[in-house]
Amino acid sequence: MRPRNFKPFRRLVTFLAVFCLVIAACGNDDDSADDPLPAVQATAAATAAATAAPASEPAATAEPAEEVSEPAPRTEEITIGAISTLDGPFAGLGDFSMHGVKLALLEWGGQLDGSGTRDGVSGASVAGVPIRLVIEGSDATPDVAVEATRKMVEQDNADIIIGPLSGDEGLALKDYIRDIPEVTLVNGTSASQDLTLRDPAPNVFRFGADGAMWSYGVGTYAYEELGHRRIATIAEDYSYPYDQVGAVLTEFCAAGGTVTDRIWVPLGTQDYSSFIAQIPDDVDAVFFAMGGTDAINFVKQYDDFTGQVIPLIAGPTAVDQSVLTELGDRAEGLISSGPVVDDSGLADFDAFAARLDEVFPGQTPNIFNVYYYVATKSALAALEAVGGDLTDGSQAFQAALAELRWDTPIGPVYLDDNRQAVVDIYLREVQDGAQVTIDTLPQVNGTLGFDRDEYIAKGSFSRDNPPCG
Amino acid sequence: MQALRHSASGRLLASCALLLLLGAAIAATPALVSDFVLLQIVIKSLWLGIAGTSLAFLIGQAGLISLAQTAVFGTSGYLMAILVLDHGLSIWAAVAAAAFAGPVSGLVIGVISQRSSGLYLMMLTLAIGVFGFFFAQQYQPITRGHTGFNGFDAPIILGADLGEREPLFYVTAVAAVAVVALLRFVTRTPAGLAYRGLRDNRRRLQALGYSTAATTVSAFAVAGFSAGIGGVISVWYNGAISPGSIDLTRIIELLIVVTIGGTIHLEGAFLGALVVTLLRNYANEFTNRTETLVGAVFMVIVLISRHGLLGIFINAKSQAHKALKFFGGQRLASEKEAVV
Prior knowledge:
heterodimer; A: six-stranded mixed sheet; five-stranded antiparallel sheet; 17 strands; disordered N terminus; B: mainly alpha; ABC transporter involved in vitamin B12 uptake, BtuC; 16 helices; 1% strand
């Protein structure tokens, strides 16, 4: 025990120490003290307007610059901030997503700074304007995602944010970024429907599908082709699996099928025995929607306990390429729909896969690296279209993004009025550890082909929405 | 001078000087730092520190290591969000309810854990803390599950919008000072003495006729107050609350904050919060392994100082004092007398 000679003087010292530290801590970042968002220099506006490529060429194609025709490269730079889950339960997926970001920047003349996840890319430039990459990580919680993004926007002066990875992070970032119109968010893999479907923000763009779109087609296929009439569902208990289950049931029930049980398991469950025991014996199939280790644990235990007597139908991320190797034989023959297949035969896909393996040896395409790649490349292509000019508060850039159409490695993409992509979805089956196409479902939109007002009026998918049987 | 320092008027004088200096430091801070630092370092450290004082109080004063403070923090934050966003209550009524919910949930946790101490208390409160997380995650009708509450607008006080950084800073700083003042006041009351008795020797406290149960429960209730205030301000700061705000990572973070800062004085929590916030924001500029660095800093501080950073400062001060005494030759004797 310390002697009890405590005096007010000591308190004073303590408090002063705290405040001195606060002030000392801020010495190195006072450059942004006056203006939190000096992303664009007003003084450069005049010269920029003269040299910039006309922004009236909205339908840009996503081809990298072959020649740099800028007469005098501007000295200013554009900062891209990439955010993914580099800590916490999804840290591995965060690594995948950064591969995608860097791969896109390499196409614009960048060089890897190092092999670490947080090592950036230097030397990339669009229309003569240098591109700087900053990388921040979250732990999949919305609070941390907002803090990390705020740091990129306000400290690093990021003009464009690529990310985030998980659904609820996306919703939180939408709220944050909406108030900063000159900053643009191009979503990574956040698959929450309401990032774009309800109350969209004008500066948020999604060049991929949401959780419901990823699950499109599998409900109809299960009813019509596989002949299932009664199914049970088991999924993690949060918004992203609600969207997957909701999309499947919407189709399955419309076709005439019924759902007997909807079982919701907490995120991160290790032991699924009690949940598997709740699955009734008389259903034709079980639809499961989980991600990462949850999917691995569930499939292993389901296989061990029941021998898969009742067949499984998988959600899109449950059998993503990022977990397929872990599942091995147990995943053979699983039906799902999703954005990435290994045998699409698209030249862009094969080129992407080859390049990925070349730059990051041993990596194969999965949702995360493909989606972050598509997001980054979309942003760079739109930048190209406006000559790297963001001096108008990113208005021309955002308009170019909204008009962008290009052939991604996973098929053609364009955006609807909510800046939500319309994309191809693949109905697929796991064969020899790869995702093999059963059918390609072209041009799936954010309302799954239903009337927009009707679809929105049905409300967000939840534990018991849609009602069925 | 010694006489002055020990007299009541000297105390008052020192307190006044302290308050003045503190006021000046608070008033000057927004001008000295960038908007970003003000929000994400200073305000964040302050509310994390406020939540930390609740744990620092429990550990430092009453010797109760509680891992359930995030549950209290979450109860207040969630209650405010639910009342405003789901029930349309006015913001100040909700804030009042949330502030009240802090001590009440502290009381409940105290009642549950009043019989245990040491390792068992840690296990029990850990269970309560994790229960808080799972309740928020699973009990959808009330908590909106994993997504939680987004888009919470901070209130407007006297025409100043707390959604803006400067007003939020002033309110948070004043709240921090008020919370510390209140907790300090409690430590000076007979109840505060009983808490220290609980920490130093439970049996002797009992032998003196105190009820250890009542002492424990009331300590949890007092600590619940500051955890609740921290929870309320965190929701203003984040504009949101979700299970991720009170998960196991956050439980451990609060423990790290308090351990790094040191528990002998409540202010240590702010020091710890500042260090952790700075590390989380800036460490990734030097390393790919932020969490490892946080862990390493934690270990180093714990290894070299039993009382955290505050212990290091105080040690340095007493060393300097000793050196002064040494050179002060003949004053040594009178100093000794005063100390004893």
